[in-house]
Amino acid sequence: MKYYSQSISKRESRVINEDAALAKKGMAAVSDGAGGGGVFAELWSKYLLKQLPVSALQDFQQLDAWVDGIWEPYYKDCEEKAKQQGALFLNKFYDEGSFATLAAVWLQDSKTAEWITYGDSVVFCYDFHNHELKYSNIRLSSFDDAPYLIGSNAALKAEGFHAGQFQLTGEEVIFVATDALSHYILMRYELCHRENYEDEIDEAIAARTKNSNFIKVAEEEAEDFEKSLTRLLDAAREQKSFIWLMSSLEESGLLAHDDYSLAMLDCRQTKKREKTHSHAEHHALAWRKMHQPRNLKMLQKKKYKKWL
Fold first, then answer.
1. DSSP β-bridge partners for residue 104
2. What does the angle CA 261 – CA 304 – CA 262 come to, to the nearest 5 degrees?
3. At what angle do helices 194-206 and 179-192 cross, to 10 degrees?
4. How are beta strands 27-32 and 19-24 bridged, if at all?
5. Are strands 99-100 and 150-151 parallel, antiparallel or unpaired?
6. Are 282 and 49 in contact (CB under 8 A)?
7. CA distance 214 to 263
8. How big is the chain by its Cα radius of gyration, in Å?
9. In angstroms, rounded to a whole number, what is the distance separating the alpha carbons of residues 23 and 128?
10. What is the 3-state secondary structure (H, E, C) of the chain?
11. What is the pTM of this model?
12. Rounded to an integer, what distance in angstroms lies between the CA atom of residue 235 and that of residue 288?
């Protein structure tokens, strides 16, 4: 089994990456630290992934018990950090703490993967034989809503928790992504299968949000989903390629400005994986030629200097 993860910050200089990503044998996860509330979001997201249990959390009660068992060491450590920042910062930490989403998947065996989510990070499973994408409970329009968040100082809400299973046949890639990238993936898939998702797409467009605009741009481009997915999974193997692809998608008006995180488990048999990887390289090369900037100076003028 192959596994990869990438997590990068927004492209401005001196920006902290509040996301975290984890991929190892039998497990993949992401956490999106919420910088809009509380403090130390980047520390909390990383802490949650570091503390994940080796076996799947089965239900909300297990998630609640797990968070209850890990928050105190984090709280004490960050309390000391907050004291060094002054009284106002310390009071904000006491009043709010830290917040983050969580999406994780565990391989129980070669036939079953179990997943959980809390918030708007998403777990995906793509079958390259049946060309079918399965994913955790979310709709395109849901990305416009404020997400449920795991708080270091706050009680969890049962309605924010979702869990399920993927049944595997040896043809799948399982991957987990934070919200902006998840919206891109789901948008691409639903537009390529519009006959099955007409109502959901229309609902998201009618909301007239930034995400609605991404959908309209993607409608015009009308790229095959499997091509875009294989390009994304191929880019996740190397940070430089991942950075290049995220910046290109954002500049093309297909992807929201955000931190981006992706963790993947390639469950395919070796020959099938190599065949798909070969196709991915071909599609990625063609796409880069179509979307590449004219020269390095142009990239620098567009404030890509930090990422390159």
1. 29, 116
2. 10
3. 130
4. antiparallel
5. antiparallel
6. no
7. 23
8. 19
9. 21
10. CEEEEEEECCCCCCCCCCEEEEEECCEEEEEEECCCCCCCHHHHHHHHHHCCCCCCCCCHHHHHHHHHHHHHHHHHHHHHHHHCCCHHHHHHHHHHCCEECEEEEEECCCCEEEEEEECCCEEEEEECCCCEEEECCCCHHHHHCCCCCEECCCCCCHHHEEEEEEECCCCEEEEEECHHHHHHHHHHHHHHCHHHHHHHHHHHHHCCCHHHHHHHHHHHHCCCHHHHHHHHHHHCCCHHHHHHHHHHHHHCCCCCCCCEEEEEEECCCHHHHHHHHHHHHHHHHHHHHHHCCCCHHHHHHCCCCCCC
11. 0.88
12. 12
Which positions ≥6 away from 87 have C-beta within 8 Å?
A: none
Q: Phi/psi zone of residue 257: left (φ > 0), alpha (ψ -120 to 50 degrees), beta?
A: beta
Q: What is the total residue count of the chain? A: 308
The two tokens of residue 71 are: 């928050």
CB 245 within 8 A of CB 235: yes
Look up residue 168 and give its two tokens. 């595997």
- Which amino acid is residue 95, in one-letter code? D
- Residue 286: count of CB within 10 angstroms of its CB: 12
Could you list the pLDDT tens digit for every one of the 308 residues in the chain?
899 999 999 988 788 999 999 999 999 999 999 988 899 999 999 999 999 999 999 999 999 999 999 999 999 999 999 999 999 999 999 999 999 999 999 998 889 999 999 999 999 999 999 999 999 999 999 999 999 999 999 999 999 999 999 999 999 999 999 999 999 999 999 999 999 999 999 999 999 999 999 999 999 987 899 999 999 999 999 999 999 999 999 999 999 999 999 999 999 986 545 554 555 555 555 545 555 544 444 444 444 444 44
